[in-house]
Design a protein that fits this description.
Helix content is 38%, strand content 10%. With 473 residues, it is of the alpha/beta class. The protein has two domains: 3-301, TIM Barrel (Alpha-Beta Barrel), CATH 3.20.20; 341-440, no CATH class. The strands form four sheets. Strands 5-6-7-8-9-10 form a six-stranded parallel sheet. A three-stranded mixed sheet has the order 11-12-13, with no helix packed on it. A two-stranded antiparallel sheet has the order 1-2. The N and C termini lie far apart (60 Å). 38% of the residues are buried.
């Protein structure tokens, strides 16, 4: 590899590590006479639904940015090495990595080097080279820069499998404070266009892709220069036999990302924002990125503060409840409970706040209620529903169905019998669940006992507490 290209790759791949909106594509691209496949592939060693681990080249197109967002490592005022790819350089690099079996596709984001349209045009040229010159059929996830023109967005969507527009921060107030050059209209505009285009080709709800869409820039004049040339190339590609070339707009849908911990929003505000995004834009995923302190600014957490990784984890669990378990944001958190419990996952926290609804009879509860029982997931709920059509489900069978009885037993009855010990009590259940989690994680009394060191005092080793009143338990 050329030394200059390697240095660019080193800088731009390092700059891309803060973007976490990476997911399995959910795309099965039929490959007829082309190079590569996109078989519901994932990204950066992510696991697919069928258990495969696949990888993509995760890189920025450029980290030269005209914006000065206070939370961003690539902001204009940051003292960091800068680099930019040429479209052909990155396309050649992707194919070189693919042919060596290093990757299965590309995750491409970018800073804004001159303007949103200037950067997006270069990204599109790179994708066009991959799709039309190299005939690359592998998975491509492209980040859409807020403020990009509808014509360029349409072209990028025709070349990529999944698109994403980062909302960045949970509220417009925080965006104005930390990224004043970015406007909420510039973010929501592309998201709305993607949603409308997917609706037009009927890809928001399962299969039913249209064979082809008319390019949005078909009315462009010849004076548009390189954009016209790109459109002509696209039209030429469209004349290939349908068995060999098939265009679809972002068949993997769209996603977005929010930075958590850089601004003062509560977990409830974040979850309600996610719920609105799912409802309005029909997103595949909302990703949460724990803010890693990279800048010293009075509006941001201290540089030496730890990223809120536990909070990010709980938000993902709450997001799962929104998407698969039928919960509303106001059920997960309310005004009296604006933050998620750091000790318990959101589902069991909700159940303990609504203990009057439990225990639930496992053989009579509707599927919607089964999904709300801690320890019962979507797969085990379906298994229970299928089994009880044939015969009553027995308590001993629940574990084989995938139910986590350490949690579920406190919230269910089976043929009228309760297996949770004493009557359901939130404090008792919480203590038992936390105790079970400690045992599962190996945090028993034995492991919590401090290891005796040769530097400990004799009195400490004998267990009388010594001068400091300590004792070995």
């Amino acid at each position: 590899m050329d030394g200059v290209i390697f240095e660019k790759l080193k800088i731009l791949s390092d700059g891309a590590k803060y973007d976490v909106s990476c997911a399995t594509s959910g795309v099965d691209r039929t490959n007829v006479g082309r190079i590569g496949n996109a078989c519901a592939a994932g990204i950066c060693h992510s696991w697919t639904a069928d258990g495969r681990c696949v990888s993509l080249l995760k890189v920025l197109f450029t980290n030269r940015c005209v914006y000065d967002c206070k939370y961003c490592v690539n902001r204009r005022s940051a003292d960091t090495p800068r680099a930019s790819f040429e479209p052909s350089e990155l396309a050649d690099l992707v194919m070189a990595f693919y042919r060596r079996n290093y990757i299965e596709g590309l995750f491409l984001s970018s800073a804004v080097e001159v303007s949103p349209d200037d950067t997006a045009e270069k990204i599109y040229r790179c994708l066009r080279i991959l799709r039309e010159e190299y005939m690359f059929a592998g998975y491509i996830h492209a980040k859409i820069i807020p403020g990009v023109s509808p014509e360029l967005l349409r072209r990028l969507g025709m070349s990529a499998d999944r698109l994403s527009v980062n909302i960045e921060l949970p509220t417009e107030e925080s965006l104005r404070l930390l990224a004043p050059q970015k406007k909420i209209k510039g973010i929501f505009g592309p998201m709305k266009q993607i949603t409308q285009t997917l609706a037009e080709q009927k890809t928001l709800k399962g299969p039913g892709f249209m064979d082809r869409l008319t390019p949005a820039g078909a009315n462009m004049t010849a004076g548009d220069g390189s954009l016209t040339e790109m459109l002509q190339s696209r039209n030429a590609a469209a004349t290939l036999p349908r068995s060999r070339y098939k265009e679809r707009f972002a068949p993997g849908g769209q996603s977005t990302q929010m930075i958590i911990g850089a601004s003062p929003e509560s977990d409830r505000q974040i979850i309600k924002t996610s719920e609105s995004l799912y409802r309005i834009f029909k997103l595949k995923r909302v990703y949460f990125s724990a803010y890693i302190p990279v800048a010293d600014a009075p509006e941001l957490p201290a540089v030496l503060s730890a990223p809120p990784l536990s909070r990010e984890h709980r938000l993902y669990q709450a997001d799962w409840l929104l998407r698969f378990y039928g919960f509303a944001a106001d059920e997960i958190l309310d005004e009296d409970h604006p933050f998620l419990d750091t000790e318990l996952d959101p589902k069991i926290s909700w159940a303990l706040r609504h203990i009057e609804q439990f225990p639930v009879e496992i053989n009579k509860a509707p599927l919607e209620l089964l999904l709300r029982i801690p320890g019962i997931g979507t797969t085990s709920a379906m298994r229970i529903a299928r089994q009880r059509r044939i015969s009553a489900v027995k308590y001993d069978e629940l574990k084989k169905m995938g139910v986590v009885l350490k949690r579920a037993r406190f919230f269910i009855t089976c043929s009228g019998k309760y297996y949770g010990g004493k009557e359901p009590d939130p404090v008792y259940i919480k203590n038992r669940v936390l105790r079970a989690d400690d045992i599962r994680n190996g945090l028993t009394e034995k492991t919590l006992t401090p290891q005796i060191s040769m530097f400990d005092s004799v009195s400490f080793m004998l267990g009388d507490g010594g001068a400091n009143g300590l004792s070995v338990r």
